[in-house]
Structures are given as C-alpha cells and as structure tokens.
Model the fold of this input.
Amino acid sequence: MILTNKFTWLLGLAIIMTSCLDDSPSEIELDMERDDLALEHYLTTNDIDATKTQSGYYYKKTVEKPDADQFVSGDYIGIYYQIKSLDGQLIDSYMDESKEPRIFKYSQDGLWPVSITYASGLAKVGEEMTVYSPSYLAFGNYSYEALILSGTNLIIELKYAAKYTKEELMEREEAMIADYIATEQLEGF
Done:
C-alpha cells in the first residue's frame, strides 16, 4: 500500500512537471523567424544574390580589395554608410566622400547595428558591401518616431575608407583643433 501511494505520487509529480514544459517557440524566436523570412522574401523577390552568415545577416561585396588590410577587433575604422529599411525608408546616411569618414572602433560597444560590426570582420580597407540585417542584429525592438519602427530589418551600404591607429586619430584631432583655432583667429591657445 505504501509502495503504490509513493508510486502514484511520483507518477502524478512527473505528469505535473512534464505538463509545465512548454516546447512552443518564445516571442524572441518568433520575431527572429519573422525577420529571417522577411529578408529571404526581399532577397528572392529582388533577385539579390547575397551570402547568409551564421549570425543571420546577409551580405554582398560590391567592391573587393583582396590585397588590402583586413580589419581586426580593436581597429578604428573610417566608413561611409547609408541605412534604409527594406521598404526604402532612409534612416541615416553619411556618403559624402568629400568629407572625412565617420570613425568607429571595431568592437561590440556602441550604438551601431551589431550587423555592421559583424560585417566589418569580413571587410578590408577600400571594400564596399551591402548588408541585409534582420532587426535582431540592428535596432531590435527600439523605435524612434516614424523613422525607425520596432522590428525594422535594414539594408546597410558600407564603404570602408580607412583604418586608423589611435596615434593617427590623436594627430588628426589635434590638426582639426589647430585648423579651427586658425580659422576663427582665436588667441591664447
């Protein structure tokens, strides 16, 4: 009698515990699947031949420089870029090559979509590429008015203009300050 009660109790406990396990996908997994399907549809519909990475973004190099320097973690990279949503809404653009490139440190820090950081690991100085990024590697659920909607997949055009050392950036900054002081005719600096 005691053995059957223990067995019944254990069987009941096992049934209760297994019924608590939920094999259905999480909200994040569903969002990721939605993004992946949207990107696949966009690329197929527009007949774009891009390479898919293990991380989940796609890329297509439009200019290759096989003999150029490869970027590595910690490098300071000068880039020109344009970021749009899949439907063509311009989010940000800095493509004027008559100006100095924007500089970012190749690392996991910062406000850049992480897909830009990941793609930089595949790039070399002088190369250009287009990145097709799911929202989970871009701005995720972040939204900003009508400019960036939550869950926006991105098309990012990148031009890798230069690679800088920390010393080169310091010299560049000092030259910019000196030019400003001279232009504004400031004294005492």
In short: Strands lie at 51-52, 58-63, 76-85, 90-94, 102-105, 128-133, 154-164. The chain has a mean pLDDT of 84. The chain has four helices and seven strands.
